[in-house]
Amino acid sequence: MLLAERPLASPPVTYRAVLGTRHVLRLLAGTLTGRMPSGMVAVSLVLWVTRGGGSLATASALAAIYGLTASVTQPVKGRLMDRHGQTRVSAPAAIVSSSSLLALPVIGPGGSTWLIGAAVALAGLSAPPLESGLRSLWPSVVTDLGQRKVIQALDTGAQGLMYVAGPLLATWLATTFGADAALAAASALVLVGTATVLTSAPSRTWRPHREEAVESARPLKRHRLVSGGMVLLCMGLAALGVSLGGLGVWAAAIAETNQAAWLTGVLPAAFSTGSFLGGLLFARLARRAAPATQLSCTSALFTVGWLALLTQPGPHAAIVAAALPGLFLTMVITCGFETIDALAPASRTTEAYSWLILAVGTGQAAGTVLAGTLADHILGLSALPAAGAAIATTVFVLSRPVLGPRRQPGRHRRTATPPRPRHRR
After folding, report:
1. In a 3-state reduction of DSSP, which class is residue 134?
2. 27-42, pLDDT tens digit by residue?
3. Is the pTM of this model over 0.85?
4. Residue (of 253, 399, 272) closest to 327 by Cα position
């Protein structure tokens, strides 16, 4: 009798194998380049307005307008992309957004406030949806599920570096060449990054998915995006965003308390660096649990990480305290994307990813406003990020029964499985 052959163990997933996959580096680099203005525009606008004689309040309002308009239009652009493809949506969006940013130096900081506000709003409204578009491309580029988990974690972690490199680049350009140069550079990066992605083979050949009629006897419900699980997931992610929104105000308060202005920029940078390192760690971990379970666990760790802020740390300890919760941010966001991939209908995945981005962005804006009201109460301000994360964890834990998959993750872009060969007798 012949012994049954044991299945071969899957080879370990390495960064070299993932990054060496065709198109991966190009798509990552293009997306990060095209989204770099997300970390540049706010700082550029503040420097551009204040150095032109404007007030900090005006500059902050313009920065808020850009961030808010860029967030609220994500689902609309995602839905259009699901219907018409990536090129038809992102190409004109990049041209309009880039032109709007380039129009600001032409108008000048002393120009009409309404005209400046319209240009900033248009730049945000038309910001190309590169992040959600990239998420839709990964299943066709990285077909192995293990490698796909690695690239998604690396992708999420690398996004945080934009908020380290972006402000630094904008500040250097504004200091060396003037604030107009920082806005012009952001305009150019939008075009270069978007063109890099759209001219790649995966983006050019990507087509909106059309679900077969045999997959469901209820065609109207088959394409339904809104569900109890999706609503609860977005609620939890919005609470998670409150933590992120409170970080910047807490950093400014700690800097003022310790009379160390440099902490205002270093603490968010430490958080983003921790997020990137956490992504590298998470990508190498063996994760067998369901995405909803991983989401609850990583969110709980994210909550615990914020507790160090309650100790009122000194300057150097504050850097460690900021980096600690950052280690778990990429884990939570990656699990959130995987959960959405399991919940959303196959024909509307790009739009679903956009709702995740909107939920986090909205919560972040609310957290910033709430933190501003607590600026004079350092203990309450320090507790705000942990409170937001705790609410998110509670939502994720209680909603686990409805966060289970409606379909298999990645099904919308998987390559066809070859038929098994029949054994001859």
Report:
1. helix
2. 989 998 998 888 888 8
3. no
4. 272
- Top pLDDT among 314 and 420 is at 314
Question: Nearest to residue 321, comparing CAs of 330, 329, 311, 331?
Answer: 311
Rounded Cα gap, residues 385 and 396, in angstroms: 17
Nearest-Å Rg of the Cα atoms of the chain is 22
Asked if 334 contacts 282 with a C-beta cutoff of 8 angstroms, the reply is yes
Q: What is the pLDDT of residues 122-155, one digit of tens each?
A: 999 999 988 888 888 888 888 777 777 777 777 7
- Kindly state the helix (H) or strand (E) to which residue 14 belongs, with its residue range: none
Alpha-carbon torsion 212, 215, 217, 222, what sign?
Answer: negative
**pLDDT of 380 above 60:** yes
Tally: H helices and E strands in the chain: 18, 0
Place of tokens 């402000």: 167
The CA angle 9-11-16, to the nearest 5 degrees, is: 170
Distance CA 316, CA 61 (A): 32
Structure-token pair, residue 246: 């409170």
> Does residue 56 or residue 336 have the better pLDDT?
336
Q: Using alpha carbons, list the distances in angstroms from residue 41 to 59, 64, 163, 201, 327.
A: 11, 10, 11, 30, 26
Q: Return phi, psi of residue 11, to 5°.
A: -65, 145
Which residue do the tokens 């379970």 mark? Answer: 293
Rounded CA gap, 198 and 81, in Å?
12
Query: Rounded to the nearest 5°, which phi and psi values hold at 298?
Result: -70, -35
Measured distance CA(382)–CA(360) in Å, rounded: 20
Tell me if 243 sits within 8 A of 385, measured CB to CB: yes
Q: What is the DSSP string of 32-85?
A: HHHHTHHHHHHHHHHHHHHHTT--HHHHHHHHHHHHHHHHHTHHHHHHHHHHH-
Residue 424's alpha-carbon distances to 1, 2, 7, 95, 397, in angstroms, are 17, 16, 20, 60, 50
Instruction: Give the DSSP H or E segment for 94.
Output: helix 86-107
Q: What sign does the dihedral 323-326-331-332 (CA atoms) show?
A: positive
Give CA 376 to chain center in angstroms: 30
